[in-house]
Amino acid sequence: TPREREWRSCRHCEALFWDGDAGFKGLCQRGGVHEADAGPNYSLEIGSADDAQNQPDWHRCRKCFALFWNGRAPQTGLCPGGDLHEVGGPALRLPHLSIEDDANHQRWWRFCRKCAGLFFDGFDDKGACPRDGLPHIAQGLEFVIPHELPEDATHQSFWRFCNRCDACYDCRLQENVCNIFKIFI
User: Fold this and answer.
1) pLDDT more than 70, % of the chain
2) Which of 56, 121, 134, 170 has its CB 3.0 to 4.6 Å from that of 48, i.e. a possible disulfide?
């Protein structure tokens, strides 16, 4: 697979920019030119095919050398070189993680910013937070929780979903009480 090397993170604006031109380093959004930080030298795949793990249509701007997504052209984002970004390099494909359900993994688990518990965010009803009885409020990342797997040194079984408050609980505990509804489950 052909690749384009010399992609670096700018130590001023933290944008990913092409550092492959010996004379010009592109225009930094914080003024001046980009300066590479001490981080890695990235190599991005050249290509335009879309799949579950890769998004195409990323390009180098010919004015500022920053990486931008051209998938909503003509809305390409503001360029520090004036006006909008302009395509100046090959089409690049960037990898991304796809969160998919399967027989042993369920997505849609989120952290509640009010009670700090994990709740299922896959329904319109967001359950009842034990902090105030109102719906949970999702914050941060989405988690994929494994299920129906054997217990071992790194996996703990016996966690269940409470269909009253949408939280997880350990069903091995002697007294499992739904924190919000104060009933035994």
Assistant:
1) 84
2) 56
pLDDT tens per residue, range 37-52: 998 899 999 987 888 7
Say if residues 182 and 134 touch (Cβ distance below 8 Å): no
Mean pLDDT computed over every residue of the chain: 82
CA distance 83 to 97: 32
The enclosing H or E element of 69 equals: strand 67-69
Q: Which of 64-73, 124-133, 152-161 has the highest mean pLDDT?
A: 64-73
Identify whether the C-beta of residue 94 lies closer than 8 Å to the C-beta of residue 126.
no
Q: Residue 45: what are its φ and ψ, rounded to 5°?
A: -75, 135
Burial call 126-161: b when 16+ CB within 10 Å, e when fewer: bbbbbbeeebbbbeeeeebeeeeeeeeeeeeeeeeb
Size of the chain in residues: 185
Token digits for 165?
A: 């408050």
Q: Are 144 and 104 in contact (CB under 8 A)?
A: no
